[in-house]
Design a protein that fits this description.
2 copies of one chain form a homodimer.
Chain A: H1 4-11, H2 15-23, H3 29-42, H4 48-55, E1 58-65, H5 71-86, E2 90-95, H6 100-112, E3 115-120, H7 130-134, E4 139-142, E5 151-155, H8 157-170, E6 176-180, H9 186-202, E7 212-214, H10 219-230, E8 238-241, H11 244-256, E9 265-269, E10 283-286, H12 289-304, E11 313-316, E12 319-321
Parallel strand pairs in A: 1-2, 1-3, 3-4, 4-5, 5-11, 6-7, 6-8, 8-9, 9-10
Antiparallel strand pairs in A: 10-12
The structure holds a DNA duplex (16 and 16 nucleotides).
DNA sequence: TTGAAAGCGCTAACAG
DNA sequence: CTGTTAGCGCTTTCAA
């Protein structure tokens, strides 16, 4: 690979001038032309590693997510990527697999590779951001909030839980179960709280807690919990799914048993991007995942640019897309 | 951040010795201990940028895929990641969005960042690997084959097309349409060829081509094509979907019109990871995406390790999971 | 086995 | 506006 020295020699200028041309500082027009010519002739691409070493920062941001196979997070990733690449930044996608150990490894790499910032959907309460924050790098939390004083973007989780439940109540369902993610994840807890409040308001005397299940935020979690609920002496006639994958699992089990929605009512918090259901059968509380990514990326870029205002948390509203099929 | 010099000073050795400790070359036991102590005390992490600059290569591989929101590719990414991280490599996921321009940018970054190798599912025929190959870096093609003499891992696409179609024929369907990806993508062309041969063998006199549609490899592509097919004077009674997302789109349209499979027969090439259909309603030709990622990563790692055997192409077999629901 | 020293390619003072 | 120069932190000969 050609270096800045080769270009300088060919263009008859100093290496510093070549550097300046590629960094937009003032250089006379003729020299700019000469340098560009030479660079093109040599097929020169600046060596990013050297630049990074020298500058102590690179135009790369890390995006750490707990599950790369969840469309919710990939949709968010698209949002991040679009904003970042627009601004000349590349995005490195890191899959923590919900493990704080992997998370820590990626965070360490981010520092060791001089990345300019991090957007992270934390695995759980145990996530430590102390080290990365100590380096002064900006970090933005997405989807899940943290105990750190940093920027964040979250969904209106409690409201999502309430709307989902309310829609089912309005449709005439009575025994409305809830299947959520692990209780120690704040999004899961909030959504459950929304379900609880909507349901207990409608049915003050009902035994609500026996209808709650906490699973993993994955398809098999939803399946297992749904099976458990159906095995109850008095099974539910509807269910609120705490995220998209749980929703898929629950619907799969229902379908396999001939209880296809709306025979049993289903409301899902999160979109079902690849659903093959009739669009009117299930209530969906759309979570603006892409928008969350866009917002987070913008905030991070501002911080990278030197913005020092106090930490903000932005809460994104959801949109309810009610099931219109009649109950059977 | 602490540097190698800080550690050296604290441990009472030379920087070179510290480097050796972290690179596994021979150092006396006492010094190893001293260095490790000092490193721990200072919370030292080697600066990867500096190492990369010096070594002219880094333990990072790039994975370039055309659609990060397609579960097929994220499943593959998981396979790559698992193998790579096992071997101490990080994976940078790059989304080309099926655009050769974006692809070229990422390839250039891979070089400029001294990454050790690339696994790429090319956007289309127009993809140029000349530059990256000229740097001597190993490149492995996945999913789609290229015109270059490099390692590759592909699915048995033609066989997939045949099996899918044959299964529908066996189930008694007659007018079996095909919706595939863009014809200039070789996977799409091969799968179509499989459909064509199976169908023309079974129905030598039928006008097959009027039942073929070429769309994008996305949900909306599948939807549009399915609508077109249903608008035909003599609509098909079954359809083969060229990939998972096309399948989703086609099934959505059918469901919306009350033609839920198996009323109209559907065979999908690729898994439907988040399907909410009855598992017996649709024929699925499972493509081992994770396995493809694993295989590609292993091959790449071998090449990075200096393996110079002639380029290999590995073809992965699929597994047909027939619909068992009876035709209605 | 160990240390001294020379860069990897680039940027950013500092001079001019 | 332009060139000279000194490193960024690490690895790797080369000597000892």
């Amino acid at each position: 690979m050609a270096t800045i020295y080769d270009v300088a020699a060919l263009a008859g200028v100093s290496p510093a001038t070549v550097s300046r041309v590629f960094n937009g500082t003032s250089v006379s027009d003729e020299k700019v032309a000469a340098v560009r010519d030479a660079a093109a002739k040599l097929n020169f691409t600046p060596n990013r590693t050297a630049r990074t070493l020298r500058r102590q920062s690179s135009e790369v941001i890390a995006l750490v997510i707990p599950d790369i196979e969840n469309p919710y997070f990939t949709e968010m990733a698209r949002g991040v990527e679009d904003v970042a690449s627009e601004a000349g930044y590349s995005v490195v996608l890191c899959n923590s697999d919900s493990q704080t150990v992997k998370e820590a490894t990626y965070l360490r790499i981010a520092v060791a590779e001089h990345m300019s910032g991090v957007i992270i959907a934390t695995a759980d309460e145990g996530t430590s951001l102390d080290e990365i924050l100590a380096t002064g790098r900006p970090v933005v939390a997405v989807d899940r909030s943290t105990s750190y004083d940093i920027d964040g973007v979250v969904m209106a989780n409690r409201a999502a839980g309430t709307s989902a439940t309310q829609d089912l109540i309005n449709a005439g369902y009575r025994r409305i179960a809830y299947i959520g993610g692990p209780e120690h994840i704040d999004t899961a807890a909030e959504r459950a709280a929304g379900w609880r409040s909507a349901l207990s308001a409608a049915q003050p005397d009902a035994d609500i807690e026996s209808l709650a299940r906490f699973a993993t935020f994955r398809v098999d979690g939803g399946r297992a919990a749904m099976e458990e609920l159906l095995a109850l002496p008095e099974p539910p006639d509807a269910v609120v799914a705490g995220n998209n994958l749980i929703g898929v699992g629950a619907i799969q089990v229902l379908t396999e048993r001939g209880l296809t929605p709306p025979k049993v009512g289903v409301a899902v918090i999160g979109s079902l991007p690849f659903t093959t259901l009739s669009p009117t059968a299930v209530t969906v509380v759309r979570l603006p995942a892409r928008h969350m990514g866009v917002t987070a990326a913008r905030m991070l870029l501002e911080r990278i640019g030197g913005d020092t205002q106090p930490a903000r948390t932005i809460v994104l509203r959801n949109e309810v897309q009610p099931a219109s099929a009649l109950r059977v």
